Amino acid sequence: MAADDRDPAGGRPLMTLREAAAATGRPPEAIRAMIRRGRLVARKNNSGRFLIEVPPDLIRPDPAAATAGVEAADSRVVGLEVAVEEWRAAAEEARLEAAVAAAENRLLREERARDQERMGRLEAELLELRRPW
């Protein structure tokens, strides 16, 4: 169905017999019968083919499109789950690195305190040795 094939008055899409049958899920003979009974309106286009106004309540959703949408959503969910696991692993790695850095920082502070204490003792000993007789 082309984008320009719309009923100017009602705004309903105009479809060929084959398109109308596919959209409603009914055989072409059933669509012809609905036209004869007045349930559907048909008009001839410039090439002599009938274009049928199909009301939205007769159009059924395409199960293949719905399935494709579900499959696409499922694959997106799987992709997002993989991304979540990658981020969790990265966060865990960052937590471990932070814990190691904190432990190293504590050890360096303790070592600095010991060095400052030793330096203080050595300065006191040096002063004692430099004292005149």
Tell me what the structure shows:
A three-stranded antiparallel β-sheet has the order 1-3-2. The chain is rod-shaped, with a radius of gyration of 41 Å. The protein is built from three helices and three strands, in the order E-H-H-E-E-H. A hairpin with a 5-residue loop joins strand 2 (41-44) and strand 3 (50-53). Helix content is 65%, strand content 8%. Helix 1 (17-24) crosses helix 2. The model has no long low-confidence stretch (mean pLDDT 85).
Mean pLDDT: 85
Report the oligomer. Answer: single chain
Unreliable stretches (pLDDT < 50, length at least 5) are none
Query: What distance separates the N and C termini?
Result: 115 Å
* Rg over CA atoms: 41 Å
Q: What is this structure's SSE topology?
A:
Blueprint: E1 14-15, H1 17-24, H2 28-37, E2 41-44, E3 50-53, H3 63-130
Antiparallel strand pairs: 1-3, 2-3
Helix pairs in contact: 1-2
